[in-house]
Amino acid sequence: MPSSDVLVYALHYEGAYNKNSLGAVSEGARLAAGLGGTCHAIVVGGDDLTDDFCAALGAYGATKVHRAVAPEGLAQPVVDAMAKVISDGGHAYALFGGGLLGFEIGAGLAARLDAGVTMEVTAVRAEGGRLVAERPILGDSAISEVHYEGDLGIVIARLNAFEIDETGGAPAAVQDVDFELSPWSTKATMVLRGEQRGEQVNIEDADVLVAGGRGLGKAEGFALCEELAEAFGGAVAATRAVVDAGWYSYSAQIGQTGKSVAPKLYIAAGISGAIQHKVGMQGSENIVAINKDANAPIFEFADLGVVGDLHKVLPKLTAAVKARKAQ
Ligand SMILES: Cc1cc2nc3c(=O)[nH]c(=O)nc-3n(C[C@H](O)[C@H](O)[C@H](O)COP(=O)(O)OP(=O)(O)OC[C@H]3O[C@@H](n4cnc5c(N)ncnc54)[C@H](O)[C@@H]3O)c2cc1C
Asked: How many whole angstroms from 62 Cα to the centroid of ligand 1?
């Protein structure tokens, strides 16, 4: 008989939890309360996993943290550890905050434990003792509700779908996971793990994104976006049109076939606002659009629109941000 407990994977890097994971732990605690269960987290890594580091997830609502010694950043070892914890503990749901690693682990776990899985989830609720996940479909024009059957349901959220809620709960109990790595889990090793910078910056965690589209005119036009992003302490994003044209790297592409982001501020420069781009950035708290065409679709969902030539507007904006920061 499964419990009503929720197990959340908490990703960390250089001694800090990923904010997307903290949102997932907070959401896991809320959902577990609605199910009448408790929220557990699982943390994978090496010597860096001190008792205090693991127990700190109690402040976000986890009552227990399962500590697994295995390479962090690779999917299969985490699948091994999570499968063991769930098999022993009978958790009813596993929750991931999203991101590429979360997708890979969640999919692997679903296959391993024959569980139901929903990806790109934007909201979850407890109803009648079970979870119901909401997932946007058809280019985000409709929401499908997914009900789970069976003993284990896996919820993989869209990046940053959940609010971080630091409730200040008691330190979580820390329990080491006694598990074995599958033979195939040791076939891949981590060669290098590092934070991406410059054009390769990790856009999913940035509070401010300056996105450039075909209106930049040429690859060199991205310098304007980079200068503004640097002034804000943010990162640069791009449309598929410019990525396909080779003006910027694919890792910066936002949209249906790129990444979904939800920064505090999204500045769209020279971007028309096609639906395939919109689905990846419409969750941003504030959208500012700069476009010389007053009829561009992006103005229909921007919070603030500037009709003008980005080559004039962006440098002025950069100078203004720098001046404000210097005060
Ligand atoms: C299956 C599929 C999947 C797709 N997936 C994605 C995706 O993931 N992400 C994505 O972005 N797109 C995606 N697309 C492509 C999408 O449909 C659009 O073609 C693309 O988003 C347009 O990019 P853009 O806004 O840079 O270019 P454009 O649509 O060409 O817009 C350029 C804009 O710049 C403005 N402009 C020009 N010069 C200036 C200037 N000097 N100052 C200010 N404004 C100026 C113009 O008025 C125009 O509005 C997908 C398409 C398909 C069919």
From this structure: 42
